[in-house]
Amino acid sequence: MNEKQLREKRDQELIEILNEVRVALAGASVLFGFLLVVPFNSGWDDATDSQHAAYVVAFLATLLSVVGLMTPTAYHRLRWRERNKERMLRFSQLGVVAGIACLAVAMTAATYIAIDEMARTGLALAVTAVVGAAFLLVWYALPLSGPYERWDDEVDDEELHELGSHPRIGAGTD
Description:
This protein is an all-alpha fold. It has helices at about 5-35, 50-70, 70-80, 85-120, 120-145, 155-165. It starts with a helix and ends in a 9-residue tail after the last helix.
């Protein structure tokens, strides 16, 4: 793969990750907004200790989710026009995966709060366990369960790192 093709692939990967983040970030932001108002509602003082604990987990996990999901945007803006898009993509990948994991935790904890308020605690725990298992299955186990054909199979890690860290002069901007 020549340097121009590699640059085009990285540009495509950046577009893909930013499009994916737009979807997840909207949900995380809405959840965060709702969670911000919960403690200020008049009935919140009557919540149980387990609901308060679940709220803290949901709130902090949502906050960390937004941090992770915003990683590509922040990194891109801070390092704009520098020629190390491979590093940015790898770092952004870690942030987004962490953000998605935190979002799953937050939504699972929020599920517990809502169900526990409406039904018995036993039912809330059962539903929360099913929701948590669904996130693990659909967001992690299924995507990681089979082989995945990579675009860069013919490029070894050392070559990829070299091309990402030391582009040729005149190779254009990322």
